[in-house]
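A quick aside before the break. I want you to see a complete sequence-to-structure record at least once, exactly as it would be stored in a machine-readable document. Don't worry about memorizing anything.
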Amino acid sequence: MDIACAERHAAGDKRTGEADSDIKGTPLTQALPGMSDDLCFLSAVALRERIVSKRVSPVEVTRAVLARAEAMQGELNCFITICGEQAMVQAQAREREVMAGGPLGLLHGIPFTVKDIVNTGAVRTTFGAVPFRDNVPEHDAVAVARLRAAGAILIGKTTTPEFGSKCLTDSPLFGRTCNAWDATRSSGGSSGGAAVAVASGIAPLAVATDGGGSTRIPAACNGVVGLKQSNGVIPHSQVQDAFGNQTYVTPTTRTVADTALMMQAMAGEDASDPWSIGIPMPDYIDRAAPRGDLRGRKVLFCLSPPGRPVAADVAKAFHAALDRLASLGAELEEFSGEGFDIEPIWRAINHTAWRTRFEKLAADHGNELSEAFLKQLALATKVSGVDFQQAMFDRTALYRRVQALLARADMLAMPTLTRTALPIEQDLFGAIEIDGQPFDNLRPHWFPWTMPFNMTGHPAISVPCGFGRDGLPIGLQLVGRFRDDAELLRVSALFEASADLLGRWPGRG
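That is the input. The structure line, written in tokens, reads:
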């Protein structure tokens, strides 16, 4: 185990809470043998078919993923809570329902995880922050409640930086979460634990969140599928500013079909989220099937906003991905990235919201919060009310710019990240290195393309498209028309089928 990841365990010893089972770590080399591992790496779609046909038991599946979680936690540190006893009780109930022969839920007996920023009733939800280490919500967030109602089994809460506030998953509460492919690299963030758990075969479905790329960044870093759906498609019942919101509760999975399965369970209007009301509910599972081709579809592409560097291996993988889209019949046309270097706009809106939410917490518990989190709150003091409103005006202009592009095309394409996963010790305020050259200001240099679509509300997905010189995954981001999430999933599924990457996972070739 590398020194950076070893630092986590002192923080991990602080974990407490009546809702938790203990988290025990063993070396990665002691993970489960072949048969159980194969069960863990089955897709949710495959597990669903096997459970319904009584070829696999929900108890067998849950026991396997829990054992894998316990075995790999010490190496990856992707959980802050593992709900072993509760999950087995649920699995036994799901098994009885299968044997009774009655109707089964869409996700009956399928394990899932929830990012520790999303409320889970009777299960500790810490927001990755020491002051909330013993917080146990009374109720599930709407998205979680819907997954449970569909028969899915919660096996644990995955790691997040404090309040999902950065693109690196570390916290004074639990330490660092390692990349699923390389323990010397970051998992990305802020949904790093979610992506690592999915990539490493612990559970096929994960609830994440995305406020500026927090689902898509770790998805690209760990080689999984991360969707930020259109605004309102999945209700966000926890957000305090429902009208100005640019954060999303999202699915993370290994396959596009599994993302569609989660969408089918999580989507649909709820009174808590005004943007969810009145949105038609398509059959995501059927619409996301990789049928047909891309003939008659136009894809606009751009490598990067002007002046933002992209690593050579990322550029190579991106152009190869464009070739695959063209081979499926898509018409390709380059668009200018002018006007998309929008990190200052995103930051003015986002950091002002954080300051409003957390200024008192920082005053009362500053010694328990990280330096990076406190520094971001301090930056927000420089944003005036006029600055904030100008950023909101600029957000509208950005939305209209994207709408204009999609009026003459069906989809946009760009790299999810400008380079592969960063070093595990990367600091949010440190320089980022791209092809040996240092660049200040991490956010606009590493993920210039994720933040825009949080602000515009368009659906954006990161799908694996290759590997870098360092052997780490590279992601392609596709952006669809506003609330045409089903078509975005269909195109992504066609691309996924053409890329032939589904058999390659950490430690499995």
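Two observations worth writing down. The radius of gyration is 21 Å. Confidence is low (pLDDT under 50) at residues 1-35. We'll return to this after the break.
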